[in-house]
Amino acid sequence: MKKIFTILFVAGVIIGTTTVKAQSTKSSMEDRFFKKDISGAALLQVGYRQTDLSQLNGYLAQNGIPAISNNNYWINAAMQKVYKKWITEHGIGFTIPNSSEANGIKARYSQAALFLRFGYNLSKSSNFQMYPFAGVSANLAMFNIKDKTGIESTPNFAQEILNKTSSKTLYQTKLGVDLGLGFDYLFKVKSKEMEHITLDRSIPVGFRLGYHIGAAQSDFKVDDHKLSNGPTDKNSAFFATVSFGLGYHITKR
After folding, report:
1. Are the beta carbons of 179 and 210 closer than 8 angstroms?
2. How far apart are the C-alpha atoms of 177 and 57, rounded to whole Å?
3. Domain extents for the chain?
4. Which of 45, 150, 210, 233 pairs as cysteine with 243 (C-beta 3.0–4.6 A)?
């Protein structure tokens, strides 16, 4: 019986010590994590940047395919981080596809991008941000040809596997530089008190104005096959973006 009590006592000491260490570690991690206030926002953005497809449309005309309208409208999802006066914004964006069709052939063009921007807040007010920024973006242009006539030429599964069609997807990678000015007004929402922290919430609404510089681009490819003599326009252009989302400022009490 004494042995059982001894074992239970030792087990209790070990568990207690482990719990204290775990709590101490958790507290230490919280202290490090909340050493500085944390601010930022999750953003949804709708923007306009002209993409001139005149060169591509020239190639389409040679093949009897109607022109595709310029691919100008972007939708972005972004995260913003704020450290003192410094602002970073990174996210992913894509365009609404544009297409044309004739004689069973459908052509479609769209774009996607990853971007990273750095800015410095010139405003002294806690209610709004005004900051010049510079950033880079990695862009992907996708051009798809769908041969509906060829695809639908047979109802047989086995024959469809090796059925010859004009369907294909071509893609091109691009590198861009963004220079501009950002503005956000922060509509304050009631703060929320939680264990050890205060969460100040806001709804940031603003815009981004700037110029996109097409710095470099690759040749179009189909699969891994490089194609020469394709469109070469780097599509440098002004852009305008409307931005809104959910903002936060976390302070340790």
Report:
1. yes
2. 26
3. 1-33, 37-252
4. 45
Token digits of residue 36: 């500085």
Residue type, 133: F
CB 242 within 8 A of CB 46: yes
Tell me the two tokens of residue 7: 């074992």
Its pTM stands at 0.80
Q: Quote the CA–CA distance of 45 and 173 in Å, as a whole number.
A: 22
The one-letter amino acid at 65: I
19 vs 11: CA distance, rounded Å: 12
Assigned CATH topology for domain 37-252: Porin (2.40.160)
The closest of 202, 189, 210 to 131, measured between CA atoms, is 210
Spell out the per-residue pLDDT of the chain, length 253, in tens: 444 444 444 444 455 445 444 444 445 545 555 556 889 999 999 999 999 999 999 999 998 999 999 999 999 999 999 998 999 999 999 999 999 998 889 999 999 999 999 999 999 988 999 999 999 999 999 999 998 887 777 788 887 777 788 889 999 999 999 999 999 999 999 888 877 788 889 999 999 999 999 999 999 999 888 888 888 888 899 999 999 999 998 887 7
